[in-house]
Amino acid sequence: MRALAVGAAYLAFEAFVWALPPPDLARAQRLSSTVLAEDGTILKAYLAEDQTWRLRTTPQDVPPHYLAMLLAYEKGAELIVAVGTRFNLIEFLERNRAGMSSTFLTRLKVGEKLVDARGVSRLFRPRVGIGMVLAFALAAVAAVAAVLIASPELRDLISAVAERLRSLVGIE
């Protein structure tokens, strides 16, 4: 019963989200005013009209591994395995460095699909059963049979070896 209630609540939330109008992206175009040095670095930045920081950024400003995560997410990846990233939110926040907004937003977007490489072994426990071993052996026998059928020279060689073995054992 509880699962049914949770499922109904989830569906209601999804319906609510889909009923919302699309966000107004025009405000993202109104950037913060900045004072730049001769080399282009920011000396001073001011809040935008809506009292938020909106600094111009390009894909080159975002670390490549976060761009790769976003690309994998947008292309429909079921699982994104990252190597060397912070494993959980606490480890991530303990870095305490400036400019973490792209990192945080990327993590927020791909979070449900993102797994650190250390956690992959916990997700997948491959079990090889007797059925898999038999299927592999059957495939190997089929491959050898196909080669024997396709190669008359190999058949002649095997026949000669078998004849030699029979003569050594004394079976004629």
Q: Alpha-carbon distance between the termini?
A: 76 Å
Q: Tell me the strand order in the biggest sheet.
A: 1-2
The portion of residues forming beta strands comes to: 5-15%
Largest sheet: 2 strands, antiparallel
Structural class: mainly alpha
Task: Explain the overall architecture.
The strands form 2 sheets. A two-stranded antiparallel ribbon has the order 1-2. A two-stranded parallel ribbon has the order 3-4. The chain has 8 helices and 4 strands; from the N terminus they run ααββαβααβααα. It starts with a helix and ends with a helix. Among the domains are: 58-126, no CATH class; 130-169. 55% of the residues lie in helices and 8% in strands. The radius of gyration is 31 Å and the shape is elongated. With 172 residues, it is mainly alpha-helical. Helix 3 (64-74) runs parallel beside helix 5 (101-110). A hairpin with a 5-residue loop joins strand 1 and strand 2. The longest helix is centred in the C-terminal third of the chain and has 21 residues, at 130-150.
